[in-house]
Amino acid sequence: MYDWQKSSFSPDGSNCLYLAASASGGVLIRESDDPRQAIAATSSAALAALLRGIRADAFGRCLNRP
Q1: In the chain, where does DSSP find H-type helix?
Q2: How many domains does the chain have?
Q3: What are the φ/ψ torsions at residue 32 (nearest 5 degrees)?
Q4: Tens digit of each residue's pLDDT (9 = 90 or more) over 5-64
Q5: Which of the 8 DSSP states describes residue 42?
Q6: Count of alpha carbons within 13 angstroms of residue 10, beta-carbon side
Q7: Which of 62, 50, 60 is nearest to 17 (CA)?
Q8: Which residues contact residue 5 at a Cβ distance below 8 angstroms, ignoring those fewer than 6 apart?
Q9: Is pLDDT above 70 for 2?
Q10: What is the pLDDT of residue 13?
Q11: Which of 10, 38, 50, 64 has a CB 3.0–4.6 Å from the CB of 16, allowing a cystine?
């Protein structure tokens, strides 16, 4: 199947995302609450752009923060 990797920022195993490489070279993402459901697929470039935006706090307005 897939070699799911958990972030080291989620040590307790709950409320975390798991990532795995897809056969097509993309990235698969699933939530820890129900590993059989809600698998999303994206490219590594799109995931990297999302992470850059999160680190730069580019989504503050989307989260109702000033």
Answers
A1: 44-55
A2: 1
A3: -75, -25
A4: 887 776 665 678 888 999 888 999 888 777 677 689 999 999 999 889 888 888 776 655
A5: E
A6: 13
A7: 50
A8: 18, 19, 20
A9: yes
A10: 59
A11: 10
**Which residue carries 């799911």 as its tokens?**
4
Q: Which of 51, 24, 27 is nearest to 39 (CA)?
A: 27
Alpha carbon distance, N-terminus to C-terminus of the chain = 43
Long-range contacts of 8-13 (CB under 8 A, 24+ apart): none
Domain of 14, in residue numbers: 5-63
Name residue 54's amino acid. I
- Taking the C-alpha atoms of residue 21 and residue 24, their distance in angstroms, rounded to an integer, is 8
d(CA 9, CA 23): 26
Cα(30)–Cα(17) distance, rounded to whole angstroms? 6
* CA–CA distance, 27 with 21 (Å, rounded to integer): 5
